[in-house]
Amino acid sequence: MSAMPPSGKNRWTDPAFYLPVLFISVLLVNPLIIRSTTFTQVSILVLWYACLTASWNLVGGFAGVLPLGHAVFAGIGAYTSTLLFIHAGLSPWIGMLVGGAIAAVVALLIGVPTFKLHGAYYALSSIAFVEVVRIITENTQQIGSLKINGVQGLLVPLRGHAPLYFQFDGKLWYYYIIVALLLIIIYITYRIHRSRMGFYLVAGGEDQEAAESLGINVTRYKLVALSLSAFFTALTGTFYAQLVLYVFPQGIISLNLSFEIAFIAIIGGRGTLLGPVIGALILVPIGEISRIYLSGSQFIGIHLFFYGTIIVLAMLYKPSGMMRSIQTGYDRLVHKLRGASASAQHEGER
Amino acid sequence: MEFFLEILINGVLTGSLYGLTALGLTLVFGVMKIINFAHGTFLMVCMYMTYGLGVGFGLDPYLCIILVVPAAFVLGYLSQVVFVQPVLKAERDVREPVGVLLLTAGLWIAVNNLFLMLFGANFRSLKTPYSDQVFEFGQMLISRPLFYAFVFSLGATAILALFLRHTHMGRAIRVVGQDREAASLMGVDIYRIYRIAFGLGIATLGVAGAIITPMLYVHPFAGDIYDIRAFVIVVLGGLGSVPGALLGGIIIGVIESVASQYLTMSWAAALIYMIFLLVLFVRPQGIFGFEKDS
After folding, report:
1. Which residue among A194, A313, B176, B288 is the one 20 to 30 A from A18 at the CA level?
2. Is B105 in Cβ contact with A66 (below 8 Å)?
C-alpha cells in the first residue's frame, strides 16, 4: 500500500501490487466458496457498516471533529429513494442519487452553523440534530401529500427479481453491490487523502488556528468533506432500505447507529484508509454472533455488554486503533516477500 | 389560571431535579473539559443502591442519602483512576480530545447492559408511605416526593456552590478549571483535583438517585432519560456553571411541563432539542458560561 513498486520490474512479482489484488479477489470470490446464507448475510452487514464508517471517516477521521449525526444522512437516503419509488415509481438506483444530493445539501446547511463549534460542543450539536430529526419523523404522518407514516415507517413496494429497481432474489447480488460501493468510497477517500484538500483537512483538524493563519479556509474544506461524506452515507442508507425493504425512524435515524459508526472508526483506526473495514470486521461479527448465540439465553443484553467492554478496553489500551499495527505487519510482509523474490532471482541468475 | 400555575410549579419542581442531575456533569466539564456520557449510568447505579438499601434494610430513601453519597463519591473517584485518567493522560497533547467521550459512551453501554444481565429488565419501585401523597394548596395538587426532591436539589446545589466558593479544595478545583497549566505550575496536583472533582460529580448523582427512587421506576435504563437532557441543561446554563445548571434545569422543566400540556410529550422533547441547537448557534457559552469556553 505504502511501498512503491520497484522500477523496471513486472508488477505481478511485486508484493505491494499483488497482495492488494489478492485481498480484493478473496473479497470477490469468498461468498462463492463459502455458500452459507448466514455467512453472506453477516458479510453484507460488515461491508454495510464499513461503507458507513468509511463515509464518516471522510470528515470524522481527517477533519478533527467527532460527528455523531450521520444516521440522519443514512435516513435521508433511505427515505428519499423509498418515497420516490412509492410515489413516482422512480427506480431506487436514481432515487439513491437524489437522496445523496439532498443529504449533501442538508450537510452544507447544518455544517455552516455547527462547524463554528468545537470538540464536545460539536459532538453534542450533532446528537441533538439526530434526536430532533428522529422525533419529528416519528411524529409526522405525512408531509403535504407524501405519506411517511411516523413510527411505523414505509414498506418498499415489492417487484420480485427486478435488477432495474434494485431488487434481487439472491443475497449475492447485494453482496457485490455493497463491495462495489465500498471500493468506490475507499478509492475516493484515497484520492482526497493524497490531494491538497486532504492535507488542508488534516492540518485544520490538528490545529485549526495555525492552518487558518497560513491562509487555508479550513471551514470550507470541512464543508466539502462533510457533504461528500453525507452523500455516500445516504447511498449506503438507500442500500439498507433495498436490502431489508423496510424503513422506519428508530431503525435508521438512531443515535445508536451514529455511535456504532464512531466506535467502528475508533477500533479500526480513525483517519486511516482501511481502518473502517478493519473496525467493521472486528465489531460487527462480535455483535452479530453474540446476538445470535447469547441473547436467547438468560443473559439478555450480553452482546451489548461485550460491545461496550470492547470499546472501553480499546480506548484504554489501543486508542489509535488496530490499523497501525496491521499496517506495520503488512509492510513487514511486503518487505519479506520482496526479499525472498529478489534472492530467488539472484539464485536464478547464478 | 390555577391550572396553569400548577403546571408552572410542577415544571419548576421537576426542573430543579433536572438541574441536580446536570450538576455533576457541569462540574466535571468545568474542571476537565470532558463530556461524561456515562453520567446517566452512574445515576442509574445510585438508584439501584438506594433501592437495594430500601428493600434490604428497610431504609427510607432520604436516609439512604447518607450512605449512597459517599459510595457514589468512591465510585466516581475509582472510575476516574481506572478509566478516565489513563485516557486523559494519553490525550494530553491532543488539541480537541474526544477519547473520554467515547470511553464513557462505551462504559454507558457496558454497565447498562451489565445491570440488565444481573437484575433483568423488570421495572422495580420502592414504595414509601408518601410515594403517592400530595400537598393540597387550594385547587392545586403538588406531589410530596416531588416537593422533597425540590428541597433536596436546592440544598445540594447550594452546598456544592458554597463548597466551591469557600473551601481550599473548592478553590483548587475552580483554579484547575480556569487554567490547568497555571494551576500545575503553582504546585496543584491536577490529576488529584480531577479525581476529587469526578468523585464529587458522581456524589451529586447519589443525592439525585436517592430522591428519584420514591417517584420513579428503577430499571437498567432509568438514567438514560436524564442523560441527554442533562447535556442540554448544561449547555443552556453554560458548561461549568453551577447556578447555570440549576437555572437551565428549571427552564427545561418548565418548558417541558408547559409544552406537554399543549403538544404531545415527544414534540415537547423535539422542542427542547431545537432550543438547545438554537442556544448552541446563537450563544454557545450558555447563559452563565464564559466566552472562551466555546
Report:
1. A194
2. no
Q: With residue A219 as reference, give the H or E element that holds it.
A: helix A218-244
In one-letter notation, the amino acid at residue A186 is I
Alpha carbon separation from B27 to A64, B14, B24 (Å, rounded): 25, 21, 5
Low-confidence ranges of chain A (pLDDT < 70): 1-9, 295-300, 341-350
DSSP for residue B124? B
Give residue B196's pLDDT: 94
- The pLDDT assigned to A35 comes to 79
- Scanning the structure block, which residue is given the C-alpha cell 427515505? A79
Q: Which residues of B touch A304 (CB under 8 A)?
A: 109-110, 112-113
pLDDT digits (tens, 9 = 90+) for A88-111: 889 999 999 999 999 999 999 999
- A308 contacts chain B (CB < 8 A): yes
Q: Does B288 touch chain A (CB under 8 A)?
A: no
pLDDT (0 to 100) of residue A164: 85
Cα(B283)–Cα(B278) distance, rounded to whole angstroms? 8
Instruction: Tell me what the pLDDT averaged over chain A comes to.
Output: 85
The chain A residue lying nearest B280, using CA atoms, is A125
**Which segments within chain A are labelled E, that is strand?**
142-143, 146-147, 154-155, 246-247
Q: What number is the average pLDDT over the span B86-113?
A: 84
Interface touch A132/B103, C-beta < 8 Å: no
- Stated pTM of the model: 0.87
Q: Is B33 on the interface with A (CB under 8 A)?
A: yes
Q: How confident is the model at residue B96 (pLDDT cuts 50, 70, 90)?
A: low
- The count of domains in chain B is 1
**pLDDT value for A1:** 46
Q: How many CA atoms lie within 13 A of B7 on its CB side?
A: 13
A chain contacts of residue B268, beta-carbon cutoff 8 Å: none
- Name the residue range of residue B182's domain: 2-293
- Between CA B269 and CA B263 the distance in angstroms is 10
Touching check for B141 and chain A: CB below 8 Å?
no
Chain centroid to Cα B124, Å, comes to: 21
User: Which among A135, A262, A266 has the least Cβ separation from residue B266?
Assistant: A135
Here the ipTM equals 0.86
A151 close to B (CB below 8 A): no
- The string of DSSP codes covering A25-41 is HHHHHHHHHS--HHHHH
Q: DSSP secondary-structure letter at B167?
A: S
Q: Are B273 and A128 a contacting pair, CB within 8 Å?
A: yes
Q: What is the CATH number of the domain that holds B275?
A: 1.10.3470
List all residues of chain A from 103 to 122 with a beta carbon under 8 Å from chain B: 113-114, 116-121
Across the interface, do B105 and A311 touch by the CB < 8 Å criterion? yes
